[in-house]
Amino acid sequence: MRMLTPLPAEEWDDQAREALASTVPPERRRPDKAGNALSTLVHHPVLAGAFLPFNTYLQKDSTLPERLRELVILRTAFHHGCVYEWGHHSAMARQVGLTEGDVASTQTGSAADEFDQTVLEAVDELYSGSRISAPTWERLGRRLDDRQRMDLMFTVGGYSTLAFALNTFDVPLEDGAGTDEFYASMEN
After folding, report:
1. 63-169 has which CATH code?
2. 69 contact partners, CB below 8 Å, separation of at least 6
3. What's the mean pLDDT in 36-44?
4. Domain boundaries of the chain, sorted by first residue
5. How far apart are CA 119 and CA 124, in angstroms?
6. pTM of the model
7. What InterPro entries is this protein classified in (predicted)?
8. Distances (CA, A) of 174 to 35, 42, 85, 128, 154
9. At what angle do helices 146-169 and 83-95 cross, to 10 degrees?
10. Region 32-52: what's the mean pLDDT?
């Protein structure tokens, strides 16, 4: 039994569409184009309207390089067993340069690249102990400045929160999610 289903089309109102206004283009502020996650979050328009700009910052405007951002999101999704995040972000990761081996490393926690390994360890430390250790923080600082390291931490936290919601509400992954064709259809 699903805890929450995507808001049915007949229940979408101005409040639901307005909740998406700061992050979603007008043509996607409707039930057939918003996707299951957004269509579920708009059950609570005020919360969605507050959370989505933060999540959009993490995904699109963060100072963390795209490739590392997706490495962080995938490791976070793996830790939480979040099929929805994994399905969408494994495709996004490939679009920003992660290889199949890189994606696999987010499941095993063991990366061939030394810095990627440090990033995975930072996510693991946040997941298991709610903090990045001083040695890991220092190793991250070899390639990331303070703002980027802060964005890394908040990406883990933001995507953990989203995983809690997606898993609790049992949001279904859309048919075809994780493919280029799926994302092209969402743009139309």
Report:
1. 1.20.1290.10
2. 58, 59, 62, 96, 151, 155
3. 95
4. 9-59, 63-169
5. 9
6. 0.91
7. AhpD-like (IPR029032), CMD-like (IPR003779)
8. 7, 17, 11, 30, 26
9. 140
10. 95
Joined tokens for residue 141: 């600082």
SS3 112: coil
Residue 75 pLDDT:
98
Neighbours of 110 (CB within 10 A): 11
**Contact residues for 134 (Cβ-Cβ < 8 A; gap 6+):** none
- DSSP class of residue 4 equals S
> How far, in Å, CA of 69 to CA of 148, rounded?
10
Q: How far apart are CA 188 and CA 186, in angstroms?
A: 6
Distance CA 156, CA 163 (A): 10
pLDDT at 187 over 50: no
| Residue 123 near residue 140, CB atoms below 8 Å | no
